[in-house]
Amino acid sequence: MATVILITAVLLVTANFCKAVLTDGVNEPIFTDLCPVLNWAENGVTLDVDASNEEQDYMDIQKLNMTLAPDEWRTKFNKNEQGKPTRTAEQDHPKDEMAAQLWQTWVALANQLKETDQRDEVLDAAKLKEAAQTTLRQARRRTAEVAAAAYVLKQALDNIPNKPGLNEQAEVKKLIDTAVYGRSPKGQGTDFNPPGMGDPSTNRATLCETTGSIKVDTLAEVAVCLCTKKNDGGSPVNEPCRHLTTGSEVDFPTAANQVLSKYDLVFKQCDHKLPAAISAPAVNAAKAKLWSYFNHQTAATYLGAYITTGCTGDNNAGVCVKYNGITDADPSKTNEIGWLQHLNAAGLRLRNLETYNRKAAPLKAKLRSLRDDIYNLGTIAAALPQEETGKVVHLQPHVTATDSKAEAVSCSKHKNNKTASTASNCKWKGKTDTDGTCEVDDSKVTTQKMWQEQEIELQGNLLRKN
């Protein structure tokens, strides 16, 4: 493809050199390839990759977790009257790296959830506002697990290089705007004054034939130089970029504050009216096409139709942009032109975004799945059959046969009342302190099992709270 573009450009340049005069439509090929870039600036860009940020999903998960947590867990992160946190990670969780990293998030969320209606709003989003206590306990346990998993996913996402900003589409659009207008946003005609732009009031060469440092740094200026009618005598090319439809002739501006308005008339000849998809390959392809139209010579480099003498707009000279600072001795200097630099930057930013997205997409999808999971807990619980209310079931401690046998063996080792009385689950049966047997005390075993089960449940609750 690149070879075809290069051959086409060589043939075009050769044809221009061989022409006795330049005619209407002589710059139509370059204008056709320029229009998509101008359209990105004029009508907007759409990204063909997922540029969403995982931050909202992550914060939604942590917010529900804190809302369901006990009040004392949330209030310790509140700020005082001076706006400073009342507690620190080092105070409450010394040498806990995870707590230290989460602390800022917890403080931010705690101050978003101070009021009851703020917490109710979160519960309502998860369909848990009117949920039964059993459902809330289950939701608290599940949300705590999800919050921990979300933290791990967030850490993995943060460690991927070239993490995109919150609005990559807007950042890419700024680079395209700067390539076209020299600034972002576009602004009005009086705002258009790119660095180094000449005042065209004297003659066309003031704007289109730069001297010294590289000028004509914007594609708006390029479009005006390539596509407008000559502004003084001679034999002008009236419609150098006639494109698809005839359109009306666009006169060359006679003042710097007219450049943007004349550019607007030129852009109307582009058949583009809607936002268009943008990607690294699309930007690089557009840049390669425009590059192919450069004509590097010994004295200067020309962009557009050129025969001889300069870019005056005459049909026997050239309708072009002349870059005096670039020659065939070092064509790489072409990359120093402002609009090419910004197109390069846009392509690089998009490439980094696309590379990041390939690595991040499965992690972001998992994070979104976890978020949707816990915010649907209330809906799922409401759809399930509900247990009968008003009944209290007392669970009895369970002692297995294996437990009883082990206790019996242990107790049988005691041969007198003195040692038997020191065993927690044994009792002495005998006429004297030395004449008798040591047996299992079932009442003690049952009580101990009950306390053990309650302790396990209590520990589980504490872990879920924290």
TrEMBL record:
Ranges for the region named Disordered are 415-438
Q: Topology versus the membrane, per the UniProt entry?
A: Lipid-anchor; GPI-anchor
UniProt superkingdom? Eukaryota
User: Quick one: a GO cellular component term?
Assistant: plasma membrane
Q: What does this protein do?
A: VSG forms a coat on the surface of the parasite. The trypanosome evades the immune response of the host by expressing a series of antigenically distinct VSGs from an estimated 1000 VSG genes.
Enumerate the spans annotated as Trypanosome variant surface glycoprotein B-type N-terminal domain: 10-368
Q: What is this protein called?
A: Variant surface glycoprotein
Q: Where is the signal peptide?
A: 1-20
Q: Where in the cell is it found?
A: Cell membrane
This protein's UniProt keywords = Cell membrane, Glycoprotein, GPI-anchor, Lipoprotein, Membrane, Signal
